[in-house]
Design a protein that fits this description.
Layout: E1 2-7, H1 12-24, E2 28-34, E3 54-58, H2 64-73, E4 78-81, H3 88-93, H4 95-117, E5 118-121, E6 127-129, E7 134-140, H5 164-183, E8 187-192, E9 195-196, H6 205-215, E10 219-222, E11 228-230, E12 232-233, H7 234-247, E13 253-256, E14 261-263, H8 264-281, E15 307-310, H9 325-331, H10 339-352, H11 354-362, H12 364-373
Parallel strand pairs: 1-2, 1-4, 2-3, 4-7, 7-8, 8-13, 9-12, 10-15
Antiparallel strand pairs: 5-6, 11-14
This protein binds nicotinamide-adenine-dinucleotide (NAD) and 2'deoxy-thymidine-5'-diphospho-alpha-D-glucose.
Length: 376
């Protein structure tokens, strides 16, 4: 058995990674540590939690006792840190929470992993470690700041965060680097572009737009809609993390991106068209569209008239674009899912999983947790 501590495993990317790893590695035991903030949902892991290879622990990555208890109870070899406050808009409202979780939480994980993995000291005084261990920090392309019309982020691009969220993720990256340099701890940092796919919390652009279309609500586009993001299907991100964790050169940073730049307005228009087409092609999806109950002629309203331009995000980064040449050359990774296919898969998932959407957005999730875990 190989033991993995997966933090933030009840969130969007973390849960997709848990599902991916359990399928790929029959001998993996995953310990999922998650605080279950508004963004983390146990319902997302309901099938995985029936598997004896997956253990869930509710707790905060900032809490040294709970993290130490996990290392005492399980022979953890790999830590993959997804846990974070992840939404830029929320970071503008409450920066402190982002610094607390994203920076201090990361340092707490590093420190306890180091204590438990250290075997002694070498002749220069550096700690020596158990073999086959690694700490992987899941970071973001936002640490590089904002691009103009041309160019790409490489691993050598200077760090230039601009939002409280990206500043906190940069702080976390720097403390990971400090543990690598100062204590020679085996680490990697991955920096990925915007993910999309199943289990994405509907505060982020793509799932929010899908939800609003189905409810016949306005689709808020910040500023003039020309900001560019580089979209990657979440499963391709999970594959990249697995590769870096097991094959990445120790101490290295790897950028992960889809070479799939799109303006926000284009994403919104494409999502409207695709939802409308799928509802017409598959009438069995129609119950997912609550607005169609009162207005069944969806062509008359499910169109660009839903778009509304709203006040721009403060300090809104104009463009992100990743150059993934390093991970492609060294580890053979490439984005397998074409955007045209990934967006259809994603929308179909939301059409088929309205219960999940309603649950995570209604507060019903807390009740679910109490029923399932009875206050444990
Ligand atoms: P998410 O918000 O969907 O999930 C975050 C998870 O972390 C939730 O389950 C939440 O309950 C948990 N969490 C929050 N604070 C915690 C704490 N103090 N202790 C324990 N658990 C805590 O986020 P996501 O979109 O899945 O992002 C996961 C990671 O990937 C983050 O580190 C994010 O910065 C990074 N990332 C995200 C994207 C993206 O497009 N979503 C892209 C690149 C990098
Ligand atoms: O680039 C990686 C980052 O991608 C991750 O590190 C973050 O955790 C993740 O949340 C995401 O950040 P963004 O700010 O790019 O994602 P978001 O979905 O919030 O916004 C995408 C773009 O859409 C952005 O330019 C803002 C715009 N937007 C967003 C929302 C929620 C709108 O125009 N309207 C909206 O309602």
């Amino acid at each position: 058995m190989s033991y993995y501590l997966i933090t933030g495993g009840a969130g969007f990317i973390g849960s997709n990674f848990v599902k991916f790893m359990l399928k790929k590695y029959p001998d993996a035991h995953l310990v999922v540590l998650d605080k279950l903030t508004y963004a983390g949902n146990l319902r997302t892991l309901k099938d995985e939690l029936k598997d004896s290879r997956c253990t869930f622990i509710k707790g905060d990555i900032c809490d040294p006792e709970i993290v130490q208890k996990i290392f005492s109870d399980y022979p953890v070899q790999y830590v993959v840190n997804f846990a974070a406050e992840s939404h830029v808009d929320r970071s503008i409202e409450n920066p402190q929470l982002f610094l607390q979780t994203n920076i201090l939480g990361t340092q707490n994980l590093l420190n306890i992993a180091k204590q438990n993995w250290t075997t002694g000291k070498d002749e220069k005084g550096y700690p020596t470690y158990l073999s086959d261990i690694k700490y992987l920090q899941v970071s973001t392309d936002e640490v590089y700041g904002s691009l103009g019309e041309t160019g790409f982020f490489t691993e050598k691009t200077p760090l230039d965060p601009r939002s409280p969220y990206s500043a906190s993720k940069t702080g976390a990256d720097l403390i990971v680097t400090a543990y690598s340099e100062t204590y020679k701890m085996p680490v990697n940092i991955t920096r990925c572009s915007n993910n999309y796919g199943p289990y994405h919390f509907p505060e982020k652009l793509i799932p929010l737009i899908i939800k609003n279309i189905l409810e016949g609500k306005k689709l808020p586009v910040y500023g003039d809609g020309t900001n560019v993001r580089d979209w990657l299907y979440v499963e391709d991100h999970c594959k990249a993390i697995d590769l870096v964790l097991h094959k990445g050169r120790v101490g290295e940073v790897y950028n992960i991106g889809g070479h799939n730049e799109k303006q926000n307005i284009l994403i919104v228009k494409l999502t409207i068209e695709t939802v409308r087409r799928l509802l017409k092609e598959y009438p069995e999806y129609m119950p997912a569209c609550s607005a169609a109950k009162d207005s069944p002629d969806i062509d008359s309203w499910m169109n660009e008239s839903l778009i509304t331009y709203v006040t721009d995000r403060l300090g809104h980064d104009q463009r992100y674009a990743i150059d993934p040449a390093k991970i492609t050359k060294e580890l053979g990774w490439y984005p397998e899912t074409k955007f045209e296919d990934g967006i259809v898969k994603t929308i179909r998932w939301y059409l088929e999983n309205q219960d999940w959407v309603n649950d995570v957005t209604s507060g019903g999730y807390q009740k679910y947790y109490e029923e399932m875990y009875g206050g444990r």
